[in-house]
Amino acid sequence: MAKSYRFFVTCPSGFEYQLVKELKNIIPSLPIEQKQGGAEFTGSFSNGLKICLWSRIAGKALLALEDFNPHDEKEIYERAKRIKWSDFFYKEKTIAVDTTLVSKTFTNSSYLSLLVKDGISDHFRTISGSRPNVDKQDADIRINLFVSKNSATISLDISGGSLHQRGYRRKGAVAPLKENLAAALLERAGWNEMVLQKNMEQLQQDIGKPAFVDPMCGSGTFLIEAAMIASSTAPGLLRKNFSFQHLRQFKNEEWKALVDEAYKARDLEALSPVRIFGFDIDGEAIRISKENIKSAGFSSCIDVKKTNIADIEKHLDKNLKPGLVAINLPYGKRLGSDEDLSPLYQLAGEKIKENFEGFKVIALSGDEELSRSLGMKPLQVNTVYNGSIKSVSAIFSIDSRYREKTDLSGQEASSSDRKTSSAQNGEAETPASVYFSEMLANRLRKNIKALRKWKTKESITSYRIYDADIPEYSASIDVYEDKFLYIQEYAPPAEIPEKKADRRLKEIIYTAQNITGINYKNINVRQKKRQKKGEQYKKRGEEGVYDIVQEDGLSFYVNFYDYLDTGIFLDHRIIRKMIRELSAGKKMLNLFSYTGTASVYAAAGGALSTTSVDTNSTYCSWAERNFLLNKMGLKTNKIIKADCMDFLAKDNELYDIIFIDPPTFSNSKSREDFFDIQADHSSLITLAAEKLKKDGIIIFSSNFKKFKLDDNISTLFFVSNITEQTVSPDFERHGYLRHCWILKKDK
After folding, report:
1. Which of 41, 349, 545, 612 could form a disulfide with 590 if both were Cys (CB 3.0 to 4.6 A apart)?
2. Residue 496 DSSP label
3. In whole angstroms, what is the distance from residue 582 CA to residue 607 CA?
């Protein structure tokens, strides 16, 4: 009789019920229990393999080894050590430990991961005298530690990373929508029932199967997942590597039998009557989509074309059998525009209502307000998370009731009557003079005059001229290179009517343009919301357009289109100068290095070496470009993509200067838990201090307004608050929103 194991299968939040339903379909005999964040069952090792192969919704498949209630960190090590790891894998295999924390008692996930790793190593040393090697990025065996309140579970991650990674996506392509979330949304919208009909008599009567359309297909995730469902293609069929293949319980012939069965179940002929279409305005997205579709084996089944959603009817067969429209709409403010995305959502809603009579629609959007702009009454609305990004999914049904089109006020209107204005293209419904604010103009004139002597003396060409000085106009306004205007509007209070808020933003844009004289084509607008716990700013677009700014004889790439921040923090100007002055002959470490500007300054100051660490691959590439732009080699200026806490735990170097400017909160892909600056800064600084030379210094900075340095820090270090010295004239009008300290080892 096959040995039984306890498994926990994770899924996107809110899809637990669907996961249980799916798992019961995969293995009907299993008693499966719904849990928060997933489902739990007891079954054979082969059951776990089958779920890794067939589950479309699952995230990870975890084989539980040890449940306990740890009183302290030492107990976590002891529990890890006592597990008979050699029963599951050989010491020649590489390992990695991932920790998920939902606990106030335990706060340092990196340290707990090290304890589990040490326990595993000591188990193998006891029985063989040697231990497995660690490979954080590409380990054979992945171990998961989950700590919730005062309970903990140590598991083997038999999937070896998230199962959303099917194996068909082009390497390096941007994937805004996770595959398992896409599949879960399609199942929720009824696509599975539409294409997997069991009644043969009904099938024979049908003329073709339902059509599937994605009007903004991006890299093709919805399209491919829809095709996989329609053709009964196992989602794990194309994936080459699973951790279970390295376990001693794994039998290749058993796996081969499951895979052979999956290949037999794959029915491309069943897919042939299903019409699947994808459209996107971005030619690069279409190219990537085609590559992904080809990789998945669906080139002959999915048709993708480059087109604007406004022209979608030109490419549609009017005799399509009603099926499903799935659309992942842009989130947030339209990049570089003074209008939000409501007009685009209105247009999308109109085109869907005009062209898809009888279809169901599932739309993924940034929030409920944007979803309402589609102009359709939803059958169902749910909050969903694409990784850490909070979104809203809504399901609609299109019939003749929606033929009448209305504008946001509910009055009848035709699409030709709807005009939008843009700060970039100069098209406006109303003359700019109507939006000129004399009150704001006076404040801008005053601020610009006050900064004139300072910026001339210091040769400053990029600076802030306004930061919500007047409550009615809540925004920051930055000038770059005296030719670009970058406006970040802070989200207005909920009690401010939408029309009034829109007018105020127009007044900010047109008044700033009038006073500065900067060409409207060089004005860029964003909306900056307050970050909540667990949120961080994400990439906002796909333009890939960079400009160059000069600062103190150095050059840096900036991007006004794709991100909320431009690539250089203007309020760090004095801190960067300080680092350059201190760096001659020194080794400098830059944690949470962003685009590497502080490291470039250190190199310019004569640093022996710089090391820049950030978890974001885009920022690492950006930092590399900044070094090359300044003709600085990368041999002595290392750029490392890594979680900073993990890096500090493993790095063996010592540094003279360590610069730390962490985010307030972070839940990046490389971390299972949140980084919270207030809760985690003490552990971070303590870890960093272990990498500090005897006479070295830590420069620690935070822009969290309510931040308070832990009292224990002053008992371990000589602490100097240098906040006031690091605030330049363009940022001093509202006090010191950024804090900065120099820390030296006490004794």
Report:
1. 612
2. S
3. 9
Q: Kindly report the CA angle at 87 between 82 and 93, in degrees rounded to 5?
A: 100
Within 10 A of 393 (CB to CB), how many other CB atoms are there?
A: 24
Q: Nearest to residue 286, comparing CAs of 302, 301, 268, 274?
A: 302
CA distances from 511 to 233, 439, 465, 503, 714 (A): 57, 10, 13, 12, 47
Structure tokens at 262: 């999956």
Specify the DSSP class assigned to residue 412.
B
Question: Is the pTM value of this prediction over 0.85?
Answer: no
The strand pair at 302-306 and 276-280 is best described as parallel
Determine the Cα–Cα distance for residues 183 and 83; give it in Å rounded to an integer: 36
Instruction: Report pLDDT digits (tens) over 361-419.
Output: 999 987 777 888 888 888 888 888 887 778 889 999 987 543 433 332 233 333 223 22
CA distance 401 to 398: 8
Question: Tokens at residue 548, please?
Answer: 């160059």
Strands 655-660 and 692-702: parallel
How many angstroms from the chain centroid is the CA of residue 574? 30
At 111, list the tokens. Answer: 């340290």
- DSSP 3-state assignment of 628? helix
**Summary mean pLDDT of the chain:** 85
**C-alpha 419 chain-centroid distance:** 32
Rounded to whole angstroms, the Cα distance separating 300 from 316 reads 17
What lies within 8 Å, CB to CB, of 118 at 6+ separation is 77, 80, 81
List residues bridging with 442 in a β-sheet.
none
Q: Do residues 16 and 52 make contact, with C-beta atoms less than 8 angstroms apart?
A: no
CB within 8 Å of 188: residues ≥ 6 apart: 15, 18, 362, 380, 382, 393, 395
User: For 263-293, how does the pLDDT look when each residue is reduced to its tens digit (9 = 90+)?
Assistant: 999 988 888 788 899 999 989 899 999 999 9
Cα separations (Å) of 370 from 14, 185, 402, 589?
A: 21, 18, 18, 43
Q: What is the full DSSP assignment across 250-270? A: --HHHHHHHHHHHHHH--HHH
- Alpha carbons within 13 angstroms on the beta-carbon side of residue 630 total 27
Amino acid at 66: E
